[in-house]
Structures are given as C-alpha cells and as structure tokens.
Design goal:
Blueprint: H1 22-52, E1 53-56, E2 60-66, E3 69-74, E4 78-81, E5 87-93, E6 97-100, E7 104-107, E8 113-124, H2 127-134, H3 138-157, H4 162-167, H5 169-180, E9 189-200, H6 206-272, H7 276-294, H8 308-316
Antiparallel strand pairs: 1-4, 2-3, 2-5, 6-8, 7-8, 8-9
Helix pairs in contact: 3-5
Length: 317
C-alpha cells in the first residue's frame, strides 16, 4: 500500500507476521555496532596513551612507582613513557619553598622572654630520600623543618643576652642558619635560608626593658667619658712635663751659649789690648763710657781726685 507521503510500504502478509525489510534493519544494526566499536577503540587508545605518557613540568620532580616501589625519578621537563595501568606517577616540587614558622616565645641567656616570628626557605634536593623518610608529604616536611628551626633558634638565643640579640639581629639569623647546618639532609631537604621577621619584647615589659637599656647605655657613655677625661689629663700632664724639660734644656743651652760668647768676647778684648798703649786707651774709653752713663740726666757729677774719670778730665785740662 502507498501512504500519504508517496512512499510504498510493504504489508506484513507472510506467515508468522515477519517484516519484509528485516535484512535492512540488520545492516543498520551492524553499522551502529561498528561505529560504537570504533569509538570505543579510540577512547581505549586515548586512555592507554594517557596512561603511558608522563608530562614533567619545570620546577618539579616526577616520580614513577610500580606496586609501591620507586622505578625512577625525572627532573627534566618534557615527555616520557611508563607502563600503563601498572606504573603510577606523582609530582614533588623542585623550586624553593617558604615555610612560615609559628610565632613563639624564646628565653635569652639572662632569662628574658622574647617573641620570635621567623621563616625558612627550603627545597627538596633528594626526592628519593624525601619519599622514604617523609612519605613524600610536604606538610610532614614543613612540620619537621619548623621543629628543627625552632629548636635551633631557641638554642642560639639561650646563649646570648637580650641586649646583644636586639642590637645584632642580622648576625643572629646567620648564627641560627649555621646551627641548623646539615640536619635536614637526612630527609632529602636542603635549607636555603633562615630569616627573622620580628624578634621583639612582649608588650607588657617592652617599655621597662627599653628604659633599662637607655639607662645602661647612659652609664656606659658616662664611663667612657670619665676614661677619656682621665686619659686626656694624663696626656696633658705628660705634655706639660715634656715642655718644661724642653724649656729647661733650651734655657741651659742658651745660658751656656751666652757664657761662651762672653768668654770669647773677653778673649778678643784681651788680645786687642794686650800692650800698654792699648790698655791705656781701653781704660780711657771705659772711663768715658762711665762718665757718659753718669751724665745721662741733668745732674752734677762729683768725682774724687783719685777717680779714673777725674784723671780723664785732668788730662784734658
């Protein structure tokens, strides 16, 4: 019979009511099954490919395990292969990580309490040892690192007085870092650095400690000033002594030089007036000098007849 769409449909007139287009339906079913198998094969191939390929990103370790045992570890970025469904993979960070140590109290050498806030920089340098000792757990590693760093900080600070800690925080971080040393190597961890963000006094006694420190610094300054004054006094005394000695030596040398000059002067005069004529002239010159000295003012010069000066005037007459 012909339906209203113009297509002819065969009637089910045969025995048993079988449809005459059954072979076409079978072919259709086989096509659908074939498509399903192809799609399933493609999905299975993709799944197997995903199970075989290992993608390693920069700054990470890729760990391949088989039945819980480590087969190999790669740290080079790129693609590698593993056995599907048998081997599994997981990642560990290769870059430097920061762990902020919880704020805690520490006791100094002089039994003073201080509040420490610090952090550490660390990285995994031996992933196989890291997995064996810490089960590859970052959280477990940070707990262990925090405990070791805190114990080291507590040990170092307990050896130093509070004033030295406050005035030398940079050196303190280096001391704590050196005290940790290679302790973390047993866990496959490398300590990159240790820093203190805050190392301060508790709020309840901060002002009292600052006041005491100011007083101690003033006492130290006063002691230094007194020592300086004492040293300056000693230097001045020694300098005055040296000056006095030098002046005495100079005066003695000057007196000696003057005496030597006068001696030579007298010797020259003695040589000059060695005969009688020169001696008489010398006596005459000396008498004139004496008369001149006596007549400097408006005075009257009275001489005895035996005076050499009177002899000069008698000779003039």
């Amino acid at each position: 019979m012909e339906n209203n769409t113009g297509y002819t449909t065969a009637a089910n007139t045969g025995a048993g009511g079988k449809n005459d287009n059954a072979p076409g339906a079978a072919i259709l079913r086989r096509g659908i099954i074939r498509r399903v198998i192809i799609i399933a094969g493609i999905l299975l191939a993709c799944l197997i490919y995903a199970q075989c390929v290992v993608i390693t990103m920069p700054n990470e370790y890729k760990v391949i395990q088989q039945f819980g045992e480590i087969r190999y570890i790669t740290d080079q970025p790129g693609l590698s292969l593993k056995m599907p469904f048998i081997q599994t993979e997981f990642s560990l960070p290769q870059d430097v990580r920061l762990y902020d140590i919880p704020i805690s109290d520490v006791i100094t050498q002089d039994k003073k309490t201080m509040v420490a806030d610090s952090f550490v920089l660390w990285r995994i340098n031996d992933p196989q040892r890291f997995i064996r000792t810490l089960s590859g757990s970052i959280a477990s590693a940070e707990v262990r690192i925090g405990n070791i760093a805190y114990n080291s900080m507590k040990t170092v600070i307990s050896r130093l007085p509070q004033t030295e800690i406050i005035s030398g925080r940079d050196e303190l971080a280096q001391m704590i870092y050196a005290n940790i040393g290679d302790t973390l190597d047993q866990y496959g961890v490398q300590l990159v650095g240790f820093e203190t963000k805050h190392l301060d006094l508790p709020d309840d006694n901060k002002q009292a400690v600052y006041t005491r420190m100011i007083s101690e610094r003033n006492n130290i300054a006063a002691a230094y000033e007194a020592e300086g004054e004492e040293e300056a006094r000693m230097i001045r005394t020694e300098t005055d002594k040296e000056v006095s000695i030098r002046l005495s030596q100079a005066e003695a040398l000057a007196a000696k030089t003057i005496a030597e000059g006068e001696r030579q002067y007298m010797e020259i005069l003695a040589d000059a007036y060695n005969d009688a004529d020169k001696a008489e002239f010398y006596g005459f010159a000396r008498a004139l000098d004496a008369a001149k000295a006596g007549l400097q003012r408006d005075t009257t010069l009275i001489l005895s007849p035996t005076s050499p000066i009177a002899g000069i005037f008698n000779g003039i007459n």
